[in-house]
Amino acid sequence: MMNRNAWIVLTALTFALPALAQTYPAKPIRIVVPFAPGTATDNLVRALTESMSATLKQPVIIDNRVGAVGKIAAEHVAKSAPDGYTVLAGATTVISANPALFKELSYNPRTDFDAVVGFGTIPEVVVVHPAIPAKTMAEFIAYAKQNQGKLFYGSGTAGNIIPMRILSDRLGLGMTNVAYKSPPQALTDVVAGRMSAMAVDVSAVLGQIRGGSVRALAVTSAKEAAVLPGVPPLADTIPGFELVVFFGLYVPKGTDPAVVQALHLATRGAAERDDLKRNLTNQGFDVRVTDPAEFAAFSAREIERWAQMVKEAKIDPE
């Protein structure tokens, strides 16, 4: 069932598309995802593509271009033709964190993309292997201090690194980061006991938490996450700490505004369908759809905010 807002945007799309009927979309649309299947970015986009395809009357294809902390995918889209057929599934790491993490980027998040739509956010959750004798964050901190230099945490994105780095440095835990190509690889090693812990997008680890293969200690949102009742915010341990990962779609700079609007309306209609919104909420997403101008302004603010977080985490740009 669709809610009233979803009907409104689909009605608007009905009137918006005729002007583009001869030019867009005339062939399949490819959404480039910077991370592997099973990540929050991938989970979110896959939940929306069927509805988007039905609205746009063209296949919407997922293209996972994994590696280099999202830089490979972002560069590919930035250098693609601005025709609306190559779309970036942008997330915090690619848009906001990488400018602070790298001295040089082969793309510029500020100037290479036009924002299409913002989807909302999701928190990370700090998880540990069940062999770690800690059921609370306080117990984990005590255990880490007793085992200085022996604990390793995995990461595949900037969002994975920041909470653990700040936790380790601020509380003197002496943990070491091990970087992976993508978060699912790091999570596999946490489940196997080869890594002690990691911070990971909630949607990517709910199954493992509920199945008992990892233990959740804290979420990085300011408040408890509805899908993880009883798991406290990391702010209880690090006052004022909050980190949520944002998601949205971007196209190469210079894309026809009418094409941007068509994509926006199709994705908004999908995200605001009651069944899809409920599905995403059950995965831990806080679904808040925003228009291109609002999302562009938000993206710019996040670049500045993440510059401060990277500085606080004492991470030197590579």
Sum this structure up briefly.
By secondary structure, this protein is α/β, with parallel strands linked by helices. It has helices spanning 4-16, 40-56, 71-78, 92-101, 137-146, 158-171, 183-192, 202-211, 257-271, 274-282, 292-312; strands spanning 29-33, 60-64, 86-91, 113-128, 152-155, 176-179, 197-201, 215-219, 244-252, 286-290.
**Multimerization status:** single chain
How much of the sequence is in beta strands? Answer: 15-25%
The average pLDDT value, as a whole number, equals 92
Number of β-strand runs: 10
Major sheet attributes: 10 strands, mixed
Class of secondary structure makeup: alpha/beta
Helical residues, percent: 40-55%
Unreliable spans are none
- Helices and strands, in N-to-C order? HEHEHEHEHEHEHEHEEHHEH
Q: Indicate the overall shape.
A: globular
What distance lies between the first and last C-alpha atoms, to the nearest angstrom? 48 Å
Rg from Cα: 20 Å
The number of helical elements comes to: 11
List keywords for this structure.
alpha/beta, 20% strand, 43% helix, globular, ten-stranded mixed beta sheet, single chain, 318 residues
Describe the overall structure.
With 318 residues, the protein is α/β, with parallel strands linked by helices. It is 43% helix and 20% strand. The chain contains 11 helices and 10 strands. The protein has helices spanning 4-16, 40-56, 71-78, 92-101, 137-146, 158-171, 183-192, 202-211, 257-271, 274-282, 292-312; strands at 29-33, 60-64, 86-91, 113-128, 152-155, 176-179, 197-201, 215-219, 244-252, 286-290. Strands 1, 2, 3, 4, 5, 6, 7, 8, 9 and 10 form a 10-stranded mixed beta sheet that branches. The longest helix has 21 residues, at 292-312. It starts with a helix and ends in a 6-residue tail after the last helix. The model has no long low-confidence stretch (mean pLDDT 92).
